[in-house]
Amino acid sequence: MVTLNHLSVEDPDDGSPLLPEATEAVTPTSVFHRQRGITKTDSREFFLSRKENLAFSLVLLIGCYSAILIPAYLPLKKVAVLSDDNLHPKDLVLLNQSASLLSDSCQPCWGFNHLKPLSWSAGLLDIPVFVQQDRPVPWDLSPPLGLQGSEEHLALALASLPQPGLPPSLRRDGSCRRCVVVGSGGVLHGSHLGPHIDQYDVIIRLNNAPVLGFEKDAGSRTTIRLMYPEGAPHSAIEYKKTTMVALVVFKSLDLDWLTSVITKKPLSFWSKIWFWREVVDDIPLRPESFRILHPEIIHKTEQVLQKYALKPGNTVPTLGASAVVMALQLCDQVSLAGFGYDMKHPEARLHYYETIRMATMKAQVVHDVSAEKLFLRDLVAAGAITDLTGAM
């Protein structure tokens, strides 16, 4: 083996050394490390620098994700939600009033007796609730105020109903009966009225307003769910504690849908495209659990609302207003829960089961909610109905 003890190589141009003068023996390993320019000390500093960079990158990454994701879980506008242990004094008063009402004995004919003094009450005192087979009516108005032009569709739907009229459980047999109409209003949210609502003899709900998950505020039982096809709940669970479904007819096709649901014969594709929203093909109730709301309920309600309208014109009553008039026909005492649109607070919750705001009501032109509020307010003031949530 040959060892070079003194080796120096100079650049022929400037005379600077390319390799330092070696005074000791050079092994192949030391030559290799010098060629790479890395020593043990340099290696340790290099890896320490990588750890610091990695830690800084992780902190930066977490910070960026936090800045993006945390606001997504925060509401844009804060909605006050009352906890069980922090009820507002107003809610406690309403709960006490509701409890007191239920503790008193039912008063026969209470609603009608307090309705009569109102000047326009005559039209609301005796209205058939459901369409019957044995009572043919010459319809002179089209849906939803009548059934003109839908006679054939109606005949098929009635033929599929084993019991089209008023069921024995809802007939006036001398016993006093209490009704509660559960609206979808955001005022019901946090009310804690659920256990009270479940104590009523007849509980009326509207369209697809859910029960599951909202029992604390809205109750769990349903006697009558008033709805049109596009508003029918899609979840079978929502029908679990439901006694009856009453169809509100807005078009002839609604009657075909009811016949389809009862007979289990699906509608054709061409029929379905005329609904403005996807409709359910099946409702897990027996055929005797279906009814057709008498259009006279909606017609009489519309006539009364005209007296409160600021502008003349035909507007369709909401299901809520129609349900109140229906309840007055069925029960001696009628209460409301979840009614009242407060347009002065556009950021308030519109429905108890979702976070849509009150401002969205300004975009609709089908219903005159201002006239309906005046109508219901007069019923409450006259003592014909009771407002459990205090928004009227």
Summarize, please.
With 392 residues, this protein is of the alpha/beta class.
Question: Topology, please?
Answer:
Elements: E1 9-10, E2 17-19, H1 28-36, H2 40-69, H3 89-103, H4 110-115, H5 151-159, E3 178-182, H6 194-197, E4 202-206, H7 215-218, E5 222-227, E6 242-247, H8 252-263, H9 269-272, E7 290-292, H10 295-306, H11 319-330, E8 333-337, H12 369-382, E9 385-387
Parallel strand pairs: 3-4, 3-8, 4-5, 5-6, 6-7, 8-9
Antiparallel strand pairs: 1-2
Helix pairs in contact: 5-8
Parts with pLDDT < 50 across at least 5 consecutive residues: 1-41, 67-85
Mean pLDDT metric: 81
Record the strand order, biggest sheet: 7-6-5-4-3-8-9
Count of alpha and pi helical runs: 12
Helix content: 25-40%
Number of domains: 3
Radius of gyration: 37 Å
H and E string: EEHHHHHEHEHEEHHEHHEHE
- End-to-end span in angstroms? 108 Å
In the CATH scheme, the class of the largest domain would be Alpha Beta
Structural class label = alpha/beta
DSSP strand count: 9
CATH topology of the largest domain: sialyltransferase cstii, chain A
What's the CATH superfamily of the largest domain, by name? Glycosyl transferase family 29
CATH architecture of the largest domain: Alpha-Beta Complex
Q: Tell me about the biggest sheet?
A: 7 strands, parallel
Beta-strand content = 5-15%
Report the principal-axis shape. globular
Verbal overview:
It is found in: Golgi apparatus membrane. Belongs to the glycosyltransferase 29 family. One of its GO terms (cellular component) is Golgi membrane. Its EC number is 2.4.3.9. The protein has helices at residues 28-36, 40-69, 89-103, 110-115, 151-159, 194-197, 215-218, 252-263, 269-272, 295-306, 319-330, 369-382; strands at residues 9-10, 17-19, 178-182, 202-206, 222-227, 242-247, 290-292, 333-337, 385-387. It is α/β, with parallel strands linked by helices. The chain folds into 3 domains: 1-37, no CATH class; 40-73; 89-387, sialyltransferase cstii, chain A, CATH 3.90.1480. The strands form 2 sheets. Strands 7-6-5-4-3-8-9 form a 7-stranded parallel sheet, sandwiched between helices. A two-stranded antiparallel sheet has the order 1-2. Strand 1 and strand 2 (17-19) form a beta hairpin.
